[in-house]
Amino acid sequence: MVSDLLALEERLETRLEQKLEQTLERKLEQKLEQKLEQKLEQKLEQKLDARFTTHQEEMRRHFNVVAERVEGYMKLVAEVNAHHAVVLDDHESRLKTLEQDR
């Protein structure tokens, strides 16, 4: 009878130890997974931030180059327009002179 109780107690202890070990392993795995996910998210966020910063700088430089070109073209158009205005005024003066001479 005592031996049966001792055997039962030993089996219960073994089962309890196994359950405790399984529970601890599960909890530890969950914690490790959470930590790993957090670390991976942080690394990914840092890499994305760095990439966005790089692309922002490239876009800004590209936009500045395009803006300078557009500004140059606008100046050229303004100069051509001014020249044409002078030429048209000259033609208009000649036409008026010709009309008055008739």
What labels would you give this structure?
102 residues; mainly alpha
Structure, briefly:
This protein has one helix at 2-101. By secondary structure, it is mainly α.
State the distance separating the first and last CA atoms. 146 Å
How much of the sequence is in beta strands? under 5%
Average pLDDT taken over every residue: 93
* Weakly predicted, low-confidence segments: none
Radius of gyration computed on alpha carbons:
43 Å
Helix fraction by DSSP (H/I, runs of at least 4): over 70%
Please count the helical segments.
1
Please, could you describe this protein's structure?
By secondary structure, the protein is mostly helical. The protein has one helix at residues 2-101. The N and C termini lie far apart (146 Å). The mean pLDDT is 93.
Architecture blueprint of SSEs:
Blueprint: H1 2-101
